[in-house]
């Protein structure tokens, strides 16, 4: 009777091995699902970046305002008769401190 019980136990373990650790086992499926979720997150970020770049390309092809804006921001260009004023943020470390008495 013990031989039958032990042989059934060995068969049960042998059947469970492919289910958990085999090529299509639960652990592999879980890992693949996790990788798919990570890749979908990356793809959504790249889709947003592509949409932004597509909008930039469209603006640069269609009008001159985008080109003018880039020239002003990136190269500091101004139109004739305009004045360029740059306001820098106040650095708290270098600002004068008032002394309270």
What does this structure look like?
- It is a single chain.
- The chain has one domain (2-75).
- The termini are far apart.
- The chain is mainly α and 101 residues long.
- It is built from 3 helices and no strands.
Secondary-structure topology with pairs:
Blueprint: H1 2-21, H2 26-62, H3 65-75
Q: Counting H and I runs of at least 4 residues, what is the number of helices?
A: 3
How many extended strands?
Answer: 0
**Helical content band:** 55-70%
How would a crystallographer describe the biggest sheet? none
Overview features:
101 residues, mainly alpha, 3 helices, 67% helix
Task: Describe the structure concisely for a colleague.
The chain is mainly α and 101 residues long. It is built from 3 helices and no strands. The chain is 67% helix and 0% strand.
């Amino acid at each position: 009777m013990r031989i039958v019980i032990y042989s059934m136990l060995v068969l049960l373990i042998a059947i469970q091995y492919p289910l958990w650790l085999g090529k299509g086992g639960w652990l592999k499926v879980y890992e693949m699902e996790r990788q798919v979720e990570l890749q979908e997150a990356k793809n959504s970020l790249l889709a947003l970046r592509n949409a932004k770049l597509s909008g930039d390309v469209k603006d640069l092809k269609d009008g001159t305002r985008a080109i003018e804006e880039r020239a002003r921001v990136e190269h500091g260009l101004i139109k004739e008769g305009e004045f360029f004023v740059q306001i820098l943020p106040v650095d708290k470390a270098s600002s004068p401190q008032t002394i309270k008495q």
